[in-house]
Amino acid sequence: MAQVSPPPSAPVSPASKTARAFTREEVRALYDRPLLALIDEARAVHRAHHVDDEVQLCTLLSVKTGGCPEDCAYCPQSSHYESEVGPEKMLDVNAVIASARRAKEIGSTRFCMGAAWREVKDGPAFDRVLEMVRGVKELGLEACVTLGMVNADQAARLKEAGLDAYNHNLDTSRENYRSIIKTRTFDDRIATLQNVREAGITVCSGGIIGMGESTDDRCEMLRTLANLTPQPESVPINALVPSPGTPLADRPPVDPLDLVRMIAVARVLMPKTRVRLSAGRTSLTREAQMLCLMAGANSIFYGDKLLTTPNPDEEEDLSLLADAGLKPMPPARDTARRS
Ligand code: SAM
Ligand code: DTB
Ligand code: SF4
Questions:
Q1: Alpha-carbon dihedral sign for residues 206, 204, 280, 85
Q2: Farthest CA pair distance, the chain
Q3: CA 167 from chain center: how many Å?
Q4: What distances in angstroms separate CA 301 from CA 45, 108, 204, 239, 268, one per listed residue?
Q5: 269 lies in a domain?
Q6: DSSP class of residue 111?
Q7: Nearest bound ligand to CA 184?
Q8: Which one, of 2, 37, 29, 49, lies nearest residue 267 by Cα?
Q9: Ligand 3 lined by 220 (C-beta under 6 Å)
Q10: Per residue in 219-240, pLDDT tens?
Q11: Active-site annotation holds for 68
Q12: 248 within 8 A of 74, measured Cβ to Cβ
């Protein structure tokens, strides 16, 4: 079967007549390849573009938990559902910086702050997030936030505060979007990604599997990401963490090999991107996680909590990496110099 090669270096903008974008059929053919052949190809792409024994450790912190007006069917933080997560006050800057310092001490190089907001609103809460970003940067960590929708001006202010990356997931395909989220559209999502990109902030965008989506939905989500110009620097692939009270609480667990497949396809389509094996690892065996790392994932969330749900213990993760012959990615040289 013909290999799907990465897009040419020419821009793959839908606006460009000459550019080449991945087709629906190409991506599906890649996804359907025999698994070991797919992993082989992903591994080759991975080795050609990355230090292949390094895994970036990122720590998450929910700086504003719960009470979110959006109705994302997977999310315990939505106020539409009777979940185990209630609305909490926003954390203060010092508490966040203390968490970031701990994250750095245990070996994380990226710190991602999440807020259960539909969108950023100008005012004291946003000003506080800007201060958090400045504080995280002073520690020499990569700083990422995920705050819902942002406009161009807000993105520019985040950039000015030193923000490296903005996480804003597509979550699923355009076709499947309304079955998961009704309070915003897929195009709203794309517009925020555009604002982030134009502000000069790197883009982190991925999705979730295990929500009842079809294989085509999975492929289409990856195709949309891969056809962005430029491609996202970071793509988190989450397995649904079913949360009591949400509409997806009773979804059966994903087949771990589907996660491996998603990661391998993401790796082949987006050779330079950091592919993150994200939520859902507490339900995976060590062997399944190792296969994901072999198939091209080169980052994990590190620390015993994601935003509101558990994540493996730090010692478990360090021994998993060591047993796989992998090591935590060191801080970038320019950030390592700072204290
Ligand atoms: N409110 C912001 C937003 O939605 O962009 C930021 C926070 S939101 C919790 C960030 C991402 O977490 C979501 O886009 C989704 O991909 C992921 N997520 C939330 N709940 C999840 C769950 N139960 N299982 C897996 N991923 C989940
Ligand atoms: C992403 O794709 N996954 C992370 C991060 N980006 C913000 C969030 C996972 C959240 C899992 C559910 C929870 O802990 O609330
Ligand atoms: Fe709100 Fe984000 Fe959860 Fe959706 S995923 S309900 S936007 S916190």
A1: negative
A2: 56
A3: 6
A4: 23, 9, 14, 13, 22
A5: yes
A6: E
A7: 3
A8: 49
A9: no
A10: 999 999 999 999 999 999 999 9
A11: yes
A12: yes
Q: Which ligand is nearest to the CA of 115?
A: 1
**Domain annotation covers residue 82:** yes
Closest CA to 72 of 188, 163, 235, 155: 188
Catalytic residue chosen out of the listed positions 112, 128, 184, 292: 112
CA distances to 42, 208, 222, 294 from 266, in Å: 8, 13, 6, 13
Active site residue 72: yes
- Tell me the per-residue pLDDT of 129-164, one tens digit each, with 9 for 90 and over: 999 999 999 999 999 999 999 999 999 999 999 999
Report yes or no on 16 lying in a domain: no
Q: Is 96 domain-assigned?
A: yes
Distance of alpha carbon 288 from alpha carbon 280, whole angstroms: 11
Using a 6 Å cutoff on CB, does residue 146 contact ligand 2? yes
**Out of 33, 58, 110, 144, which one is annotated catalytic?**
144
For ligand 2, the distance from its centroid to the CA atom of residue 306, given in whole angstroms, is 6
Closest CA to 221 of 38, 25, 27: 27
**CATH number for the domain including 170?**
3.20.20.70
Domain count, the chain: 1
- Count the Cβ atoms, other than its own, within 10 Å of residue 132: 28
Angle made by CA atoms 286, 287, 292, in degrees to the nearest 5: 95
List pLDDT tens digits, range 254-286.
999 999 999 999 999 999 999 999 999 999 999
User: How far is it, in rounded angstroms, from Cα 56 to Cα 124?
Assistant: 32
* Domain extent at residue 309: 38-321
Does residue 180's CB lie within 6 angstroms of at least one atom of ligand 3? no
In 97-253, the DSSP E strands lie at 110-115, 142-146, 165-167, 202-204, 207-209, 234-239
Phi-psi map region of 92: left, alpha, beta (phi>0 left; psi -120 to 50 alpha): beta
Structure confidence at residue 1 as a pLDDT band (50, 70, 90) = very low
Q: For strand 142-146 and strand 202-204, is the pairing parallel, antiparallel, or unpaired?
A: unpaired
